[in-house]
Amino acid sequence: MATRARVRSEAPASAGEAADLVRDSGSAGATIRVRGGGTKLGWGAPAPEPDLELSTARLDRVLEHHAGDLTAILEPGVPLAKAQQRFEAAGQMLALDPPLGERRAATIGGVLASGDSGPLRHRYGAPRDLVLGMTVALSDGTVAKSGGKVIKNVAGYDLAKLFCASFGTLGLILQVAVRLHPLPPATATAVGRARDPESVARAASELAHSSLEKDCLDVRWEGGEGSVLVRLGGATAQAQAEGAARLLRESGLEAELLEHDAGLWEAQREGQRGAAVVRVSGLQSELARAMRAAERAGGTLVGRASLGLSWISLPPEGVEELRRELQPRRCVVLDAPRELREQLDVWQAGAGLEVARRIKRRFDPANVFAPGTFVGGL
Amino acid sequence: MPATETTAADRAIADLRQICGEEHVVTHPHQLRTYESDGLLQYRVTPRAVVLPAGADEVRQVVRACYEAEVPWVARGSGTGLSGGALPVEDGVLISLSRMRRIIEVDLPNQRVVVEPGVTNTEVSRAVGPTHHYPPDPSSQIVCSIGGNVAENSGGAHCFKYGFTTNYVTGLEVVLPDGELVQLGGKELDLPGYDLLGAFVGSEGTLGVATKITLRVVPLPERVRTLVAFFENTSHAGQTVSDIVAAGIVPGAIEMMDQLSIEAAEGATHAGYPPDAGAALVVELDGSEAECDHRFGEVEAICRRNGATGIRIAQDEAERELIWKARKAAFAAMGRISTHYYVQDGVIPRTRLPEVLVRIDELSREYGLRVANVFHAGDGNLHPLVCYDGHREGEPERAEELAGAILNVCVEAGGSITGEHGVGFDKKRYMPSMFDEPDFDAFQRLRCAFDPAGLANPGKVMPTPRLCGEVPGPYRQHPLERAGVAERF
């Protein structure tokens, strides 16, 4: 029977309803794909369409915002952009700035589940570093919480970290407590440019090791030219950025200062999405190599210089060659046409897979959460 | 059947002697006494044997031998923990990692350092100095081991701004409880797969033993400025903290002491704190020079606005050290005003500080026991020191009860039973005040994924002992998966 099964779609209105749906699907063995803003549905290994698409669109409330404590509790379907507006009004931010995708629809749940991040990661870490606590629904009907809502807490296992970047394969996030940070009163960005990857990498490394307190430290390589972008924030952003520009010049780059820097950073975020995008888990000392590889592939590179992470956007046909060239560094394929994702292992899974399998079996005993989309066929 | 258990343990110990050498397996009762407790002295358990492996491979073999003999084991670093996390198990083996003290690699270009678990926290910073440092700084940093820091997810005075151990571990080599050696993470970030590092750090030795640890290190800040301000009472100091945070300032450290702890610390250190001050607030800013200087002026103004009775600004490193000396001595100095004291570790949402302090004060009077308060004020981490006389009948028990009542106040305010000391053995009974049965069930799933036989540090963290069953619920391939994709399209 080659009839195409229809995907049932549900958008529960409460955490309780969502947990019931998960439990029922688990006992019926019906597979579940959790959908937030739908901006990263193409990520992960290609798998059969699920039986149920569980949308978090109606789980979209900011449940608590404790401005004085710099914490908040959110439902997973809150669009990140909307949450930020709310926090901005109090002079605060959730220090997560990944690309928000089409219609800026990315939700907090989707960003956490995918582990996506943006330039602010330099100073504030990955999504997992900003999560204080989490409540999840598991496929056997268990609804469990871990962590708490205070910024310092070591009681119990840190299950929230396990669920971050698990691509919705362990359970459904029902609620998340996050740490907020003050918005800097001003920002300024120093940009240095050069035409060879080595100069860009050297200057980026110089900045990475400098004692200036950077909010963001990115590199960009595009069309034979590279740049180092350094954002400073605070009451003295301009003065600090001048210091950064000085360091860039001392490293032999042409440097300028930008006070209106929002567009520049938006372009960095946009550089993380495309027809085919590979995320390289590299090293700071190999930045030049990654830029050269991007250049040869006819692609553009956006990188978090001191973290060794790069996103290379390139023509899909160049992906396999790029991965070969960057070995042994892991290159996860994020955006890519389905045909390509079917041809290769998007994850390049490595060690620790046996433990990952055991985790999956324990947390998703019914094996209904997005089976086949994550590392090693999980 | 105690007879067979004895034989199993004995056989395991014979294996340990083979693996590590006769001189690195301790079984003599006198020598075992050293290992009866960790930093929390009120609990004592004598292990069957203590083994001191020389490297990862020996750890692997030791754990494997225990696994085969079904003997429980506990890993121990420097033994400075304050929750009984390294308390031995009777008839079990204690694995001391104190011989594994090599700094394996300093990779400054990539801002990483790779160490063995017995290396002390301070040694890591020293290895990457003077340009870089390792920010998490528990107050026992001179002696506490990185392996222990990983197990407990240790923090310290600077973690409000810089984060905890978990934010700095990028890779681990781990011996799993069945003796398998696995690599989690590496020098690189975002390696594909579940965040097993995140699950492991802070798991209090219940998921395995870390034998190699890769840490991220960062450049030292351009500027550090430190002041201590004195206030009539803790509510003025507390308001100052709130105002600093509301101004969007994130201090490197912000520490508060109340009158009793000032009196004790000053008596011990002569750091120049007025012993009659109602509260002291140590504020340290660090970062880019321009920003730091600018913000420091703001902090000073906020202190004055809140009625600071005196402000001392460190003019050089020596003066800075003197300011910190009193704060760092606060715990130990309690010995001057009380024969015994219990260091509590609770967390509250910082804005609830005034009401929680009032409640602690009420409880203190109710129980007739003095409580000195030392806080990591930025993140709401309280360290009430409950003073008692251990020789007076019933007083230790009353002190323990009071310390527990303080934790309940923290949880009721929306906080936690531990901010940095861990649950260990001491606090597992309080876990039900924060977590419910389904939460424990989820915790247990993680534990069972790593340690189905339940041999790694049993009796810690979870309030009641649990066994791992087979994988709960039916694990079956989805019918569509079995049928293959072709059926569907």
Task: Give a description of the structure.
The complex is a heterodimer of chains A (378) and B (489). Chain A is α+β, with helices and mostly antiparallel strands and 378 residues long. Chain A contains 13 helices and 18 strands. In chain A, the strands form four sheets. In chain A, strands 14-11-13-12-16-17-15-18 form an eight-stranded antiparallel beta sheet. A five-stranded antiparallel beta sheet of chain A has the order 4-5-9-7-8. In chain A, strands 1-3-2 form a three-stranded parallel beta sheet, covered by helices on one side. In chain A, strand 4 and strand 5 (71-74) form a beta hairpin. Chain A is globular. The model of chain A has no long low-confidence stretch (mean pLDDT 96). Chain B is built from 15 helices and 19 strands. Chain B has helices at residues 2-20, 29-32, 56-69, 121-128, 146-152, 159-162, 196-200, 234-246, 259-269, 289-305, 317-333, 353-367, 395-412, 437-450, 479-483; strands spanning 25-26, 49-51, 73-76, 93-96, 103-107, 112-115, 132-133, 169-175, 181-185, 209-216, 218-219, 223-231, 253-258, 279-287, 310-313, 340-343, 346-347, 371-376, 381-388. Chain B is globular, with a radius of gyration of 24 Å. Chains A and B meet through strand 8, helix 6, strand 10, helix 8 and helix 13 of A and strand 9, helix 7, helix 8, helix 10 and helix 14 of B.
